[in-house]
């Protein structure tokens, strides 16, 4: 899915090959340029870079959780806002592969502005990811009321 203004995000990982397996093979993000210290991925049209930090601790240990809709949302986190069908396909794939969820796939803010399907899980280095979807993504993404 091409975007008009793609973002660039760089994160730390403790193992480049493990990041390649998780983001490249498992999540299906095409690989771009790379070296022994970093690798670029196309994350739904965005430039996503994993930088090696072999000394990093599991990012889960340093994350904070904010209460949202009765769940502790890990901060920091990142992810993509998908179309609903793509979100469901990813949720099914993650469940089938036994991914441990921080927040199981569900619909939050039901019946309210901003109703959305969401799920949180971690990559092998402990970076928190959120993938979400709206029935009307363009109309709901930034809706206040």
TrEMBL record:
Protein name: VOC family protein
InterPro entries: Glyas_Bleomycin-R_OHBP_Dase, Glyas_Fos-R_dOase_dom, VOC_core
Residue ranges of domain VOC in the record: 5-134
Highest taxon, organism lineage: Bacteria
CDD domains assigned to the protein according to its UniProt record, in alphabetical order: VOC_like (cd08357)
PROSITE patterns: VOC
């Amino acid at each position: 899915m091409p975007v008009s203004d793609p973002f660039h995000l760089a994160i730390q990982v403790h193992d480049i090959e493990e990041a390649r397996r998780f983001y490249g093979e498992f999540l299906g993000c095409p690989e771009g340029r790379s070296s022994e210290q970093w690798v670029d991925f196309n994350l739904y049209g965005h430039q996503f870079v994993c930088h090696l930090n072999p000394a990093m601790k599991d990012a889960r240990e340093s994350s904070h959780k904010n209460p949202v809709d009765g769940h502790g949302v890990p901060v920091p986190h990142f992810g993509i806002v998908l179309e609903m069908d793509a979100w469901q396909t990813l949720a099914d794939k993650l469940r089938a592969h036994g991914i441990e969820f921080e927040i199981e796939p569900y619909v939050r803010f039901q019946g309210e502005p901003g109703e959305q399907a969401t799920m949180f899980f971690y990559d092998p280095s402990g970076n928190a990811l959120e993938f979400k979807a709206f029935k009307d993504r363009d109309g709901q993404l930034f809706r206040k009321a």
